[in-house]
Specification:
This protein is an alpha+beta fold and 224 residues long. The chain contains 3 helices and 12 strands; from the N terminus they run H-E-E-E-E-E-E-E-E-E-E-E-E-H-H.
Length: 224
Amino acid sequence: MTGLLRKAMLFSCAGVMAASYVMAAVPDPTTSTVPCGINLVGIKSGQADIKGQFTVVVRDLAGNPIAGSALVLDFNGCEIDIRICTPQPGYTGGTALSADCTAPPGGVGSINAVTDGSGTANLRIVGGARNTFSHAPGEGFKCATLYADGVNLGNVNIGAYDQDGSGGITPVDQAHQLSDNFDFPGVYRGRSDHDCSNSDTPVDLGLQISADLEVMSSCAVYCH
């Protein structure tokens, strides 16, 4: 009887340890590192431009990094004016990523990536907006959602330096951004909020001008 009891206790302890391990591997939004906002960029020298770089670190409830976590940045809440490029060129030394253009009618698609051994993904995403005329409709603050292994880590604002989604990033995009910043006060558009301040200000225009000087080209094909 004593032997059976000992075995039962061992199995019970093993079960608790296994359950704890499974729970520890679940991504947690309170300990993970998620950007407030990102900026879609163009292509320079065959790579996504550095001005779009951002980092995601996936951790469990105890703060332990989760290697091999499947990331999905879902843009389908940004359908009014945001577009993502396919294929995504990425950049040397960055985390590999891909565009999933599967989306509901009117949707945008998503970006997929996997964290490295330290639970980290370093990404740059190529895309643009549809800001092609004064006061063009646009999404508000944080229209995209980031998931890790199916767990919602939070919403992310999507800025776009290629405001009109064509011809590369040029002074023409400055003119489109000016419409968001100054011509129509009180109406917020996330595409022009490059510093994720939940407002469109001269600071954002300065960041737009800096991006224009990079001479980035647009991607050839968008998901939608």
